[in-house]
Amino acid sequence: MESVFFQSPSTYVGTVELNVQQLTRSIQFYTDVIGLRVIEQTEHKAVLSADGTRALLTIEQSSFFQPKGKSTAGLYHFALLLPDRLSLAKVYKHLADRGIRLGAADHLVSEALYLNDPDGNGIEIYRDRPSKTWTWHDGKVAMTVDPLDSKGILAELNGDQWEGLPADTIIGHVHLHVHDLDQARHFYCDGLGFEITSDQLNQALFLSSNGYHHHLGLNTWQGTDAPPASDQNAGLKQYTLLFPDQAKRDQAVQRLKELGYGSETVDEQLITSDPSGNRVILAF
Predict the structure, then answer these.
(1) Helix%, strand%, coil% for the chain, nearest 5
(2) Cα 126 vs. chain centroid, distance in angstroms?
């Protein structure tokens, strides 16, 4: 993991907040299966961390939440970035030993595992290859979906045991279903200032700040014109983007305003929504 992509001058994802149907079930999953730790908990909400201090994930239950909507905009997956390949090997063996159904891929820039939480929210757990090995052409980074070298990853183990996620695990990126890529590009690039690092068949965009392969993914795989997810369904509640400083955040807010996108302060947080209804906390 190269921290340069997750500190100033980068803009990156800090936290993810999910609505879940059963808080106890989700806490058990995110602690026992994923390996996060609860650092705050109330009757209806829990905040989870890898290092015991820094919040990464908040899960919240209300009495009216229904199952995750199908064929709607919203979360495709959020991604937990591990510091190295050995950490990925530990997670891989742990999940396999528990019989967890996994997807897996080599993306050239990274190696990744995929799974779902009990509500069907997608999770990626991955490690980056060193950025000096990434291949760029005309401002676009080479990424693909190749088979994962599972034997090579597990060969990293030398009797090492899984003990939860490493303390320096962070949110690497968020990948969203959107209903229109052009509108999403308008919002995230022209408004929030991200740059396109990959454009795949006019069905997916990968966006970055400061030369990362992607801090955000956007796709229309649920179909163009997919409706916004309902506030009454399990799924993504909102996620946080961290800007380098208040000036950069305020400049982004002003650009959004000029493009016709508003923002509001809720519980001392500045919140906007992308054209597909995905809520974004703008912080620094």
Answers:
(1) 20, 35, 40
(2) 11
Domain count, the chain: 1
**Three-state SS at 254:** helix
Domain, as residue range, for 254: 3-283
Where does residue 6 rank: exposed (0-12), middle (13-18), buried (19+ CB within 10 A)? Answer: buried
Q: What are phi and psi of 253, to 5 degrees?
A: -60, -40
Q: Record the pTM.
A: 0.98
72 Cβ neighbours under 8 A, 6+ residues apart: 177, 222, 226, 227, 228, 229, 230, 233
Given a contact cutoff of 8 angstroms between Cβ atoms, the answer to whether 206 and 192 are in contact is: no
For residue 187, which of 140, 241, 246, 137 has the smallest C-alpha distance? 241
Note the pLDDT tens digit of each residue in 48-77: 999 999 999 999 998 888 999 889 999 999
pLDDT of residue 202: 85
* DSSP symbols for 122-176: EEEEEEEPPGGG--EETTEE----B---HHHHHTT-SS----SS-TT-EEEEEEE
User: Smallest Cα–Cα separation from 11: which of 245, 181, 174?
Assistant: 245
Residue 160: half-sphere exposure toward Cβ, Cα within 13 Å? 19
Q: Which of 132, 80, 91, 127 is nearest to 107 (CA)?
A: 127
pLDDT of residue 1: 83
Which of 264, 270, 276 has the alpha carbon at shortest distance from 184? 276
**Contact between residue 62 and residue 35 where contact means Cβ atoms under 8 Å apart:** no
Q: What is the CATH number of the domain that holds 262?
A: 3.10.180.10
